[in-house]
Amino acid sequence: MSPFVERRTLENMTPRIDRRVSLSGESMSQIDTDGWFIYAETGPVEGLEYNISKGVIIVRAIECDITLLRSYISRNHAQLQLQGEHLTIEDLGSSNGTEVNG
User: Fold this and answer.
1) Residue 43: other Cβ atoms inside 10 A
2) Are residues 50 and 56 in contact, defined by beta-carbon separation less than 8 angstroms?
3) Pairing, β 36-39 against β 48-52
4) Phi first, then psi: what are they for 32, rounded to 5°?
5) Which CA distances in Å does 3 have to 6, 8, 9, 21?
6) Given this model, what pLDDT does residue 90 score?
7) Of residues 11 and 97, which shows the higher confidence score?
8) CA distance 81 to 39
9) How confident is the model over 11-58, as pLDDT tens digits?
10) Are 40 and 47 in contact (CB under 8 A)?
11) CA-based, 20 to 30 A from 53: which of 16, 39, 43, 82?
């Protein structure tokens, strides 16, 4: 019997800032603040900040842009889209819905 081989390719986004650790002397004023970004205040990615430069899918599946391994996050939960200078969010038929600002 051959050993287990992982066949999925993970393409999760790399956070632009990880506030869980020191910024190693880099001040916040030196970090680029142009464009859209999301910052996780709680949960499994708390302290991580991600640039939004294209469409981003947020789901429980590990093969997406941002993975949130929580029971209340659906396998296909929400998608962020840039439309010109505007950022929109679309619920992808999640069980618990998607809220903005509360």
Assistant:
1) 13
2) yes
3) antiparallel
4) -60, 125
5) 10, 15, 18, 36
6) 92
7) 97
8) 16
9) 677 777 777 765 555 555 555 567 788 888 887 778 888 888 778 888
10) yes
11) 43
